[in-house]
What we know:
Chain A is of the alpha+beta class. Chain A has helices at residues 19-29, 42-47, 83-88, 90-95, 97-104, 109-114, 117-122, 128-131, 172-178, 196-199, 280-286, 293-303, 316-329, and strands spanning 12-14, 33-36, 55-58, 68-71, 74-78, 182-187, 190-195, 218-224, 232-238, 249-258, 261-270, 277-278. In chain A, helix 5 runs antiparallel to helix 9, helix 11 packs antiparallel against helix 12 (293-303) and helix 12 packs antiparallel against helix 13. The termini of chain A are far apart. By secondary structure, chain B is mainly α. In chain B, helix 1 (22-44) runs parallel beside helix 7, helix 2 (52-61) packs across helix 9 (256-262) and helix 6 (168-191) packs antiparallel against helix 7. Chain B is elongated and about 75 Å long.
Amino acid sequence: MSVIRDVMSPFELFQPTSVAGAMELLDRYGRDAMVLAGGLDSMDWLKDRIKRPSAVVDLGAIAELKGIRPWQDGLEIGAMTTLTDVVRHETVRKRFTILLDAAESAASPQIRNQGTLGGNLSQDTRCWYYRAGWSCYRAGGNICYADTPEALNREHAIFDADRCVAVSPSDTAPALVALDASMVLQTRRGERVVAAEDYFVGPGTDITRMTVLEPGDLLTAIRIPGTWAGARFYLEKVRDRNVWDFALVSVASAMVERGGAIERIRLVVNGVAARPKRLVQSEQAAAGRPPNESTAAAAAELAILGAQPLRHNAYKVPLMRNLVKRAIRGVEDVSWTS
Amino acid sequence: MDFLTWVRSPWGEDILGHVSWDLFWAALVGGLAFLVAHASYLVLSAHRKRQQHETDALEAAYPALPTRVTRHSLAARAFHWVMAAAMFVLLLTAFLPVVGVQFPWVTWHWMAGVVLTASILFHVVHATLALDFWSIWVGPRDLPELKAEILRELGHEVPGPKSGKYPLGNRLYHLAIVVVGLAVTATGLVMMVRVRTPFLTRNPYLLSDATWGVTYVLHGMAGVALVGLVMAHVYFAVRPEKWWITKSMLLGWITRRQYLEHHDPERWSV
């Protein structure tokens, strides 16, 4: 049987102009609705005919979901704000450079012009077994094709795999977790604010979703507090090519120093699990110590504890260890270990 | 209502996936309906036990009986409660996510499954070597008791009970639990090959896709059946007229009077 590509299944397209209108549509269509933000992830699903919603709710005409505005001591970014707008925003460039780096590392300029921050955060995983439409766990079946003896799983998880070994593909997610951001959701029961760290869910919690968003829910804004504004940030994304590619492993950190020692630090790694992995133990080990080689090495060893590589992705363990080291002690006098 | 869900294999074949969760809701509603129906019926129907003069006569006939008759040994009670705890963990971890309570349930589920399997193995050995193995089973010899029970339910005065150590209801329930419990345990043990555990090397290709589908369906059907069975068991355990049995599962013994009221000394000699 040939697979038909690029010809989408029919669906009804809605372009509401308000969040209330979008919510009404999502409530009406429930699981049969797909939310369209920039469309860069969604169009793949539609053109490949893997997901066949009866209604597509395009958020592009909702002005209240766009733009960046002051919020308390930080910023509130509308979920439909493009990555390019995030990158160009003055406050982001001055106070939250880690988000600038993260957004700028996503895909290509053309995609960043179209792709939104909300879409980048909420996109589905890139596991090709899943995206090829096979009935894996994530798709409602009872097998993970990426975790079989012959599977090609170079890009998959080394942590917290629970039947499914897919990883989060979001570039901005680790930066926002490091910044202690929160997500503003509209649900049937009203507004709900969720810490960025809790916005993402692993397969042990729900194997069919990457985020807490349930059918009918909408991510409307991302709030970044001023807690980490102007901190020493570090973001590094390792990928097979330097543009237009997803991370193999990425690290994001925010660090505040005092008197030559790390006063507080947040360390987040992505590409190693289904959700951005915050390294709390490493943070605790590094706090109060100088950001030098020895602190970095100790924190990095803690970071990789419990890693369970698959057949083809053991390289992620030393990669992650080195990225954590670089995040703590910086990239000068670099020495990689394997 | 769907009974089964189907998935498509990489080869384009439609194969069984698992049971539809509609069946879980059906088991829940069915179980509750049974409880309500049974409780309503018992309001109208007097509980049948040996009449007082019959019991008095038996007390006179069996003067050497101790005041406390051991019904369940410590080992038997320990097995029962460990199995019960494992069963509750299994059911909660299996079905809470279905009703929307999301948590990493798989590890708890397989660990409880291992405990359940170990307790069943212990029970089989213990029942074979240390208990009256056949006393819990039902067979042709129980037909008179079945007939008497039916007649009593129809309002006839029938002397008796005729049960040995375990009332007929207990034995039928045990039979149902054996069938369903073995199905869920056997399939569950095979399914452990699909998840990460310290015991087994993962091998999702141990069985063919279609056979895995059947395994998942059997596991799901047995799990759904257990929802109804466990509901019924808990219901009977807390009913006032059955409390003496529940108490014996806690303390291990029943009184001499209870022994004579509910059991046939010829079939369960102390």
